[in-house]
Write a structure and sequence with these properties.
This protein is about 55% helix and about 5% strand. Strands 1-2-3-4-5-6-7 form a 7-stranded antiparallel sheet, with helices on both faces. Strands 8-9 form a two-stranded parallel sheet. Strand 3 and strand 4 form a beta hairpin. Helix 6 packs across helix 8 and helix 7 packs antiparallel against helix 8. The longest helix has about 90 residues.
Length: about 525
């Protein structure tokens, strides 16, 4: 029976790993349904709120232990951690989609384009993370600063150490109890996220907690290269995982850039719209363009990186190669593409250039608006003087609206815009570094204040303990003094009682011999003789 049970447990664990590794492949073909409730909400303005910490593993309510199973192949054990790692890596530094209340804590949530979900709740020493597959109300992976747990169908499939190593099955020990409590809390968190109202995360809270989450992610990213079994498993699914999470990565990059631009304005403007997949625009809650906007991959990437020389020519060459392949002439590179296809390519190139110019204008807009108003007024005064001093014909031309050609000539070229963006990039990077330094300084100050508060509290506790000891010592001394006084009083009372007895005269002693009084000598029976009459 024990052998059969072990085999059954191993088969269950292997099926769990297979489902974890095939999740990416299935999601590529199945289109998830539109979310019924807002899956992402704009960040909220306002002051930062205090952090409410979730209970640790030993503080959670005790529950029945879930079954623990073994994996057949050691490499398959990394299926759970690797799937969660891919989702986490795609999210990057993007802010949370929403927050909600649960048990006095404010968990944060990220919901992927495939309806995968990740929760994060603050605990003493960092964060605890929960990962869910689409439409699953129980997590398949949970990690805290010390351990990670992989689940399948309500069973504990694997335990990971802090460095990413797989903990042997025989060494689980108390981790089975902790994993069981985490599993129940993960289920309750998912239900609360559906039942309780969702709200946008306060931007000031994200500014304060983002370095902690980024540090946790960086530590986890260092684990996979150090574990050969994890590296070997990841190589088998890396292409599929990359294809699956690429749309999510593009969306989160756009969200990160929109948030960074809003932070540069010190959150004084309305929150930027959240980047959502184009398909989500069909949902009723996504009709508000000021709050939700699809991630335009090409436009966002043009604004984020400098132009690459020859990009349009490379695109044209690839399209020509596509034409040759469709025509069956890929072995003859000298065949030119069809004229209509070339015209389409040229129009696409022109459209890309126009979008780039618009992007550069958007990038340069803050600098233009930041110029002092005196410059604009000075230009208007100078233009009025030129018109007044010019001949009538020239003045008339100055007053007439400029033609499209003259406007086009006065506009900066795409190369000038790109060069200007390149010049501005170091300053933007310097500002970002300075901002990161300020954030780190704020975190360090917060930690220092926390340490000072803890030290002050420890000092107060020590002072209270010393006061209690001093009070106890005083009470002991008072008790001893009272006992001494009572003993002295008792001694005085005893001496007072003995003093009258010593003052009284002593009585004469009684005679020791003689017969019965009045008996006359010793002829009679002695007094007290009780021997009775003489025998006859």
């Amino acid at each position: 029976m024990r052998t059969a049970a072990t085999a059954l447990a191993a088969s269950l664990a292997l099926s769990a790993c297979n489902k974890a590794s095939d999740q990416t492949a299935r999601s590529e073909t199945a289109a998830p349904a539109l979310p019924d409730l807002p899956a992402t909400l704009p960040l909220a303005s306002g002051a930062a709120t205090p952090v409410a910490y979730a209970p640790g593993p030993s503080e959670l309510p005790d529950t029945r232990a879930i079954p623990a199973v073994r994996t057949v192949a050691p490499g398959d054990a990394y299926a759970y951690a690797d799937q969660a790692y891919g989702f986490m890596n795609a999210l990057g530094d993007a802010p949370p989609d929403y927050g909600f209340d649960y048990d006095g804590v404010d968990p944060w949530a990220w919901q992927g384009y495939d309806d995968s979900v990740s929760f994060a709740e603050p605990i003493d020493g960092g964060y605890r993370y929960y990962y869910y597959r689409p439409d699953a109300e129980t997590p398949y992976f949970i990690r805290d600063p010390r351990y990670g747990y992989g689940y399948d169908d309500g069973q504990l499939a694997v335990v990971y150490a802090a460095d990413g190593a797989v903990v042997p099955y025989e060494s689980y020990g108390p981790q089975i109890g902790y994993a069981s409590r985490y599993f129940v809390r993960g289920r309750d968190l998912w239900r609360a996220s559906r039942a309780n109202p969702r709200r946008g995360v306060i931007a000031a809270n994200w500014v304060r907690q983002r370095p902690v989450i980024a540090q946790s992610r960086a530590r986890w990213q260092q684990n996979r290269p150090r574990q050969p079994g994890w590296v070997a498993y990841h190589e088998t699914i890396a292409p599929r995982q990359q294809r699956h999470w690429q749309p999510e990565e593009i969306r989160r990059e756009a969200d990160t850039r929109r948030y960074a631009a809003w932070q540069q304005r010190d959150f004084r403007t309305p929150p930027p719209p959240r980047a959502i997949p184009v398909r989500w625009q069909q949902a009723s809650w996504a009709k508000d363009k000021a709050r939700f906007a699809p991630a335009q991959a090409a436009l966002e990437r043009f604004a984020a990186r400098p132009a690459q020389p020859g990009r349009e020519s490379g695109l044209l060459e690839r399209l020509r190669g596509d034409d040759r392949q469709r025509a069956g002439d890929d072995r003859r590179p000298d065949i030119a593409p069809r004229p209509d296809r070339a015209e389409t390519v040229q129009r696409q190139i022109a459209g890309n250039q126009a979008r780039r110019r618009e992007t550069m204008q958007v990038v340069n807009e803050p600098q233009r608006l930041a110029r002092p108003g005196q410059d604009r007024r000075a230009q208007e005064v100078a233009r009025g003087q030129r018109i007044a001093e010019a001949p009538p014909e020239r003045a008339r031309r100055e007053r007439e609206p400029q033609t499209d050609a003259r406007r086009q000539a006065q506009r900066p070229t795409a190369a000038e815009n790109i060069a200007r963006a390149d010049r501005q990039q170091p300053r933007a990077e310097a500002r970002a570094q300075a901002r990161a330094g300020r954030e780190q300084m704020q975190v360090a100050r917060g930690q220092e204040r926390m340490q000072q508060a803890r030290a002050a509290e420890a000092g107060r506790q020590q002072a209270r303990a010393e006061a209690r000891v001093a009070q106890q010592s005083q009470r002991d001394q008072a008790r001893q003094a009272q006992q001494s006084q009572r003993a002295q009083a008792e001694s005085q009372r005893a001496e007072a009682r003995q003093a009258p007895r010593a003052a009284q005269p002593q009585a004469a002693p009684r005679p020791s011999g003689g017969g019965n009084p009045g008996g006359g000598g010793h002829g009679g029976r002695p007094d007290g003789d009780r021997s009775g009459p003489p025998r006859r």
